[in-house]
Amino acid sequence: MDTPASTSLGLSLRRYGASRGSHSHDHFQVLIGIDGVLDLEVEGRGRRVGAGEGWVVTPGDRHDFESKDGSRCLILDTAQDLWARCAGRAPLAPQLLALARYLALCVSAPSTSASALHHAPALLLEAWGPIVPNGRRRAIDWQGLSDWARSRWHRPLGVADLAAVTCLSPSQFAQRCRDEQGVSAMHWLRAQRLLHARQLRDRGIGVAEAARRTGYRSPSALTAAMRRSGSAR
């Protein structure tokens, strides 16, 4: 991977080659293909990013990447939590390729494109588009929200945090959670934490390390939670 140009706003133009790379970040990484095809594997799931296509890698997700015939991508590294709602789905705007190519030119000459670069993160977020079922209200990307929470088990999370990510008030989010998931917001959050811990255990990770990664106060607390759910090992 080669990074010929970048800006202080987290935007860069990168070239990928046949040499395979692998890493993870503590922030969102937004990839938009400009030319060629980039092969991604994010937490074991494959994804190809061609020209005009995009993908969002969530914080903490290990991703492998290579491009056998070479490719270029516009990259945005950002801590903006609103990107959680874009995780797991492709961008909707058909003009994404034209936007990415224009911003790539701006990255190469940042001193003459300050205004465009300043607005670039918002324009790219807009390109992913809202999810609005039946034209009534924006859908909650529950998988994206789960991925967002997974990267933050190290600190206390509450309904207000989840609501902020989905651009809802705490009461609106709580009601949507009951309507769409059939449980309270905190029950859903606890279930996501336990699911992540169970997945780590299934991968052979010890109970102490699984508890540390998922924010349980002790290994015994995790064991007790798994026993209550009927998944103790």
From TrEMBL:
The protein's UniProt keywords, in alphabetical order, are: DNA-binding, Transcription, Transcription regulation
For this protein, the record's InterPro entries field holds: AraC-bd, AraC_XylS_family_regulators, HTH_AraC, RmlC-like_jellyroll, RmlC_Cupin_sf
Xref: SUPFAM superfamilies: RmlC-like cupins (SSF51182)
Q: Where is the signal peptide?
A: none
Q: Which Pfam families match?
A: AraC_binding, HTH_18
Ranges for domain HTH araC/xylS-type? 143-233
Q: What is this protein called?
A: AraC family transcriptional regulator
